[in-house]
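REQUEST FORM: STRUCTURE PREDICTION
Request ID: SP-0412
Submitted by: Lab K.M.
Chain count: 1
Length (residues): 200
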Amino acid sequence: MLIASTFLLWIVVILLIVAVAALARQIGVLHERIAPMGALVTDGGPKSGDVAPLISAQTLDGRVVTVGGSNDFGQSVLLLFVAPDCPICKKIIPIAMVMSRAERLRLIFVGDGEAADYRAMIARHKMDGFDLVNSAQIGLAYQIGKLPSAVLIRPDGTIAGKGLVNSREHLESLIVAKETGFPSAQAYLRSINTEKVAAE
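STATUS: Completed
RESULT:
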């Protein structure tokens, strides 16, 4: 009786080891499939690698800023398209401000609406020190359809990346696009998979 119970116990232990090994393998496969995704790239407007449209526009405090084109400061420009009534914008605005300081980006908020609403938004989110341009022209030039969207422009005036941004990871993917030369996180992941297939 004791020998039979010990034998059954060993069988159960072996089956558990096999099950854990199979689960570990499946978790690895899922981890690869659910890789962090970047900003959702939109089809319209200028694409990554294109020269950014050169537009002059007024900030809410009356200064003229130029969006697009090269600059002598070696500084990339992050355009963040926002609206006062956009719930996701409320989450992205503080993240963008912190990230722009850490990455030494020039952050320009772009809106299209009532100036009073944007002034209230600036006060609410403590956006003083950052330019906010209230201009439909910029949104049309980049064909921005949904908010919040972002465009990262390299110092040479070319677009490093653009897309719909709903999280810190989406914003960071634009920085990765600038550093790696890939237009999006999705393109980067595709290139890695292609290299793996070629190596096999």
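NOTES: Residues 2-34 form one domain.
Reviewed by: T.R.
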